[in-house]
Amino acid sequence: MCDRWPPRAYGWPLVGGRFVRRGHDAGAAPAPPLAAFQMGAWLQAFLFTQIVEVPIYVRSMRCSVWAAFGASALTHPIVWFGFFHPAFPGSYVTKIIAAELFAWLAEAAYFRFAFKRKRAWLWAFFANAASFSLGLLSRRLFGVP
Fold first, then answer.
1. Spatial distance between the Cα atoms of 141 and 108, rounded to a whole number of angstroms
2. Do the beta carbons of residue 82 and residue 103 sit within 8 Å?
3. Residues 65, 2: one domain?
4. Which of 26, 83, 90, 91 is the most buried (most CB within 10 A)?
5. pTM beyond 0.85, yes or no
6. Cβ count within 10 A of residue 111
7. Residues 107 and 87 reside in one and the same domain
8. Tens-place pLDDT, residues 34-44
9. Cα-flanking dihedrals φ and ψ of residue 18, to 5°?
10. Cα dihedral sign for 52, 74, 93, 85?
11. Distant-in-sequence, close-in-space partners of 111: CB < 8 Å, separation ≥ 6
12. Domains held by the chain: number
């Protein structure tokens, strides 16, 4: 048996439907396909949200890129994995309304109280409305995010 990596189809033990080296994650189970898909879809949506919202926040709030990035970085995982979790009750429309209200109010509070910005409520609403509507348009036209 040779020590080449990636392994060839011969001479390597088959574990969980895939060939692995002996002693190298031989007991690890592969990630469920749904979880991997959800993380990929979340990352796409997260990056899209940042591309839309960060420039709006930097320009309107006169803050750094990192401060602007932090607003969505705090709310996006909660929206994606919390509000749209199967245990969260309600229709899809109800979940969207609740999630967008949460994102708007949380990001506005972030800028208002952490950075003392006076028009945080207005600009957080605009940034979230822009990312939501451009996300719907992008999905319709290109199938992403």
1. 30
2. no
3. no
4. 83
5. no
6. 25
7. yes
8. 677 788 899 99
9. -145, 155
10. positive
11. 57, 61, 63, 71, 117, 120, 123, 124
12. 2
